[in-house]
């Protein structure tokens, strides 16, 4: 019984269109080792957006979307700094992105969002058929958050030792051309992104040469 305002409607449509574009562009972009993980993430995200809209669960849906969007612009800012060859600014944005990503997706998301959808809703109205689907998709996102957070922490720790973010531990290119592999790994840092720049962290923290990027 939550009202759907026009602003909320357009916000949902915009997010849904964006993730559908990521779903299609993933098959035309450079294939990386986390291709399957990203595919699962996009499916879960599209399913959650569609499901929450159809069932009028717009309040929790908006919270989840905003929470995931919170760190995305920092990742894109770090990419821009890398393209402009401002290494220190790139590293600073990446470190800030890592902090925001971990706080929102390992802190706020599980202890606020999941706690409400899993436990408080169970006590209030009990489980129902769509409850299992809804929470199953939300938990799937949390598993991906843990995986990406591990990669972000590993990259950040190496950056502190080396003095800069220098290599992505996540997305070595899976290419049929050995020359492309060598070129990618030797000339692109963690801040580098794929040629079309279509992927991001929201899921997302995906694509590109960033650790933890969707």
TrEMBL record:
The chain crosses the membrane at residues 6-23, 35-54, 93-112, 132-153. Pfam families: TRAM_LAG1_CLN8. GO terms for cellular component: membrane. Residues 166-214 are annotated as: Disordered. GO terms for molecular function: sphingosine N-acyltransferase activity. It is a multi-pass membrane protein. It catalyses: sphinganine + octadecanoyl-CoA = N-(octadecanoyl)-sphinganine + CoA + H(+). PROSITE patterns: TLC (PS50922). Residues 183-203 have a biased composition (Low complexity). InterPro entries: Lag1/Lac1-like, TLC-dom. Residues 205-214 have a biased composition (Gly residues). Its main location: membrane. One of its GO terms (biological process) is ceramide biosynthetic process. It is found in: Membrane. This is Ceramide synthase 5. It comes from Acanthisitta chloris. The lineage of its organism: Eukaryota, Metazoa, Chordata, Craniata, Vertebrata.
């Amino acid at each position: 019984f939550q009202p759907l305002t026009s602003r909320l409607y357009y916000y949902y449509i915009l997010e849904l269109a964006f993730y559908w574009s990521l779903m299609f562009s993933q098959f035309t972009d450079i294939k990386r080792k986390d291709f399957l993980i990203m595919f699962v993430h996009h499916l879960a995200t599209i399913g959650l957006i569609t499901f929450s809209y159809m069932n009028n669960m717009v309040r929790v849906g908006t919270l989840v979307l905003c929470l995931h969007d919170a760190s995305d612009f920092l990742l894109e800012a770090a990419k821009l700094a890398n393209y402009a060859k401002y290494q220190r600014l790139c590293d600073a944005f990446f470190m800030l992105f890592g902090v925001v990503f971990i706080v929102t997706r390992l802190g706020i998301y599980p202890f606020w969002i999941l706690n409400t959808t899993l436990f408080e809703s169970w006590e209030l109205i009990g489980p129902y058929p769509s409850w299992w689907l809804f929470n199953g998709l939300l938990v799937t996102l949390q598993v991906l958050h843990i995986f990406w957070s591990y990669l972000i922490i590993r990259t950040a720790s190496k950056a502190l030792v080396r003095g800069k973010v220098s290599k992505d531990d996540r997305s070595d290119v899976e290419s049929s051309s050995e020359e492309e592999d060598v070129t990618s790994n030797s000339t692109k840092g963690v801040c580098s992104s794929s040629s079309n720049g279509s992927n991001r962290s929201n899921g997302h923290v995906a694509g590109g040469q960033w650790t933890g990027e969707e």
